[in-house]
Amino acid sequence: MSAPVVLQVAGSPVSPALVLRPWRMEDVAALVEVSRDPALRRWASPVVDNDADGARWVQAQQRGWAAGDRFGFAVLETQSGSVREQLAGNVVLKEVTSGKPVAEVGYWTAAHARGRGVASRALEALTSWAFETFEADGLERLELRHQVDNLASCRVAQKSHYDFDTILPAAPPAFPRDGHLHIRRTSA
Ligand SMILES: CC(C)(COP(=O)(O)OP(=O)(O)OC[C@H]1O[C@@H](n2cnc3c(N)ncnc32)[C@H](O)[C@@H]1OP(=O)(O)O)[C@@H](O)C(=O)NCCC(=O)NCCS
């Protein structure tokens, strides 16, 4: 993949347009800022505490793009009447292997941007891109995992047509409670 992938999501009367593009080092300060949020620290990993952590995290995303097995997108909200874009979240396609029928998605939304469809709209754009890009290489389904008590994440999965599939047993310490596996297939 030579040119950086940029995905556009149209806005609505209540929500600004979104731009999804690979993470850049210039995102580190905003990443550190949004990572102070307790919900993000609880549900998303890894924890980013400072600029050095943030730089390592962005570099890991960049290595994923270079290796072709993990595709992390910064989700930016455009500000109406301005060219400025503000970091609103993250969506990621991971565990991608040529010829393998399944890969996984993940996401988080910055606290200031929650509740206006950022995660679900960005996930829809990621899903379409993933199937368009990797279906010819054997990709048939995408998996989404969340802990049972993460109700907002379960709602994002439902809204994005990732159907509930099965209960995943707890796996402490990383996953102290049971989880849900949701699946979306190419035909959905
Ligand atoms: C889960 C998360 C990504 C949702 O982001 P978002 O941009 O607010 O998502 P959306 O606006 O697209 O949708 C959120 C939905 O969850 C619902 N919701 C929010 N909090 C909820 C709660 N406590 N219980 C039930 N539903 C809830 C909202 O009402 C909305 O549904 P609706 O559109 O039907 O009203 C965000 O809360 C987050 O980043 N959490 C911390 C990190 C995380 O959990 N990542 C996922 C790990 S699996």
From TrEMBL:
Family matches, as Pfam families: Acetyltransf_3
EC class (word): transferase
GO molecular function: acyltransferase activity
PROSITE patterns registered for this protein in UniProt: GNAT
UniProt keyword list: Acyltransferase, Transferase
Domain N-acetyltransferase intervals: 18-178
Xref: SUPFAM superfamilies: Acyl-CoA N-acyltransferases (Nat)
Source domain of life: Bacteria
Lineage of the species this protein comes from: Bacteria, Bacillati, Actinomycetota, Actinomycetes, Kitasatosporales
InterPro entries: Acyl_CoA_acyltransferase, GNAT_dom, Ribosomal_N-acetyltransferase
Protein EC: 2.3.-.-
Protein's name according to its UniProt entry: GNAT family N-acetyltransferase
